[in-house]
Amino acid sequence: PPGVRIDESSLRYVGSQPWPYPQSSMIAFRATADHTAPLDIDNDELEAAAWFDRDVVLRATAVEGPVMDPAAAAETRREHPDLELLIPPRGVIARTLIETWLAETAIADTVV
Predict the structure, then answer these.
(1) Contact (Cβ atoms closer than 8 angstroms) between residue 5 and residue 33
(2) What is the spatial distance between Cα 78 and Cα 83, in angstroms, rounded to a whole number?
(3) Closest CA to 15 of 87, 96, 91
(4) Do 26 and 8 touch, CB atoms closer than 8 A?
(5) Engineered SS bond to 31: which of 6, 50, 86, 109, CB 3.0-4.6 Å?
(6) Rounded distance between C-alpha atoms, residue 33 and residue 24, angstroms
(7) How far is residue 68's CA from residue 70's CA, in Å, rounded to a whole number?
(8) Which SS3 state, helix, strand or coil, does residue 70 take?
(9) Residue 62, C-beta contacts closer than 8 angstroms, at least 6 positions apart
(10) pTM (2 decimals)?
(11) pLDDT: is 101 or 64 the higher one?
(12) Is 14 helix (H, G, I), strand (E, B) or coil?
């Protein structure tokens, strides 16, 4: 089946949010994955998938607004052609996952 291999013991529930269509809920989990393993995606669910390092993700957090809207994303790409990644806006569970990871990796960098 499509996916990526994870360390099952690292799986943690982060939160959830309402999903308007069709009256569902989006549930967020975190896990440690093997970034050296190939990503095997379901092309009916995702257009593309890639691993990004912390600096790339951190740069993407500087862009505010509804970048998940196609027109806004195109405008953002024109304004910031050096960005490798656009991320969801604040208030979305996916953004919460990203910001939590960024905060934890910043702490890990200072502990080393």
Answers:
(1) yes
(2) 10
(3) 96
(4) no
(5) 6
(6) 27
(7) 6
(8) helix
(9) none
(10) 0.77
(11) 101
(12) strand
Query: 60: buried, middle or exposed (CB in 10 Å: 19+, 13-18, 0-12)?
Result: buried
Report the C-alpha gap between 60 and 86 in whole angstroms: 6
Closest CA to 78 of 90, 67, 89, 91: 67
HSE-up of 68 (CA within 13 Å, CB side)?
Answer: 8
Report d(CA 47, CA 55) in Å as an integer. 23
Contact assessment for residue 67 and residue 77, using Cβ atoms and an 8 Å cutoff: no
The CA distances from residue 23 to 17, 19, 69, in Å, are 11, 6, 21
Bridge partners of 16? Answer: 27
DSSP conformation class of 37: S
Tokens of 112: 């080393």
